[in-house]
Input
Amino acid sequence: MATYAIGDLQGCFDPLQKLLRQFNFDPTKDKLWFVGDLVNRGEDSLACLRFVKSLGERAVTVLGNHDLHLLCVAAGVAENYRGDTLDDILAAPDRDELLHWLRHRPLLHHEQGYTLVHAGLLPQWNLMQATQLAREAEQALRSENHKAFFSAMYGNSPDSWNENLTGYDRLRVIINSFTRLRFCSGEGEMDFDSKGGIDKTPAGFYPWFQVPDRASENEKIICGHWSALGLRVEKNLVALDSGCLWRSALSAFRLEDRAVFSVSCAVPPARED
Output
């Protein structure tokens, strides 16, 4: 029995199947962890969503920003962006079942000494606080009033955490940390404009995992979201978005021995018949 954490799929179903064959995934014994963004921009979002759901308890996935965007579009509170590939899900006969399942996925999962999130954690949050805040936002996502929450979820303000935040402002900061965070200041102010690699860190900011003395620095965190960062495996950080969507690679990390697996997502050259 082994547990494999897998990077952002974003609708890339064929590379996922190729990766599972590489490490001989056994659905009767092994378990898969997904860092979120199962859907969107790739060609097979519906297949990815159906497959992960079909694994039942053999799969854990946390919510990513593209997953939340799908839920907002389906709820009628957001429009498709140019380049979105969500129509096959929205038109599927099992649409409602899939969306209900997705809406009930967590924002944070902790097991075997590892913490799984999509993007990152603000520097003030230790694991206990982050878990409590994740449960708080999950309750809003799963409530009967979730459409009202979706309507208020988008936005960059407030851009930092404050214990005194309430209502949708509080929930928005929680959601943004778990699903959108890349760079932040030492005080936890989030930068939502910069999407480059570490060499493009804005002045006065840090990659979230390099903030000095952050409260979660001793936790082993597995995340995705940041394709410009690429595959990065350190003592307490496993970043798995290796850019499958951008024809680079899809990567996995085995928790038990920290082995790394990758398959190319490059488009094969056309045959000359």
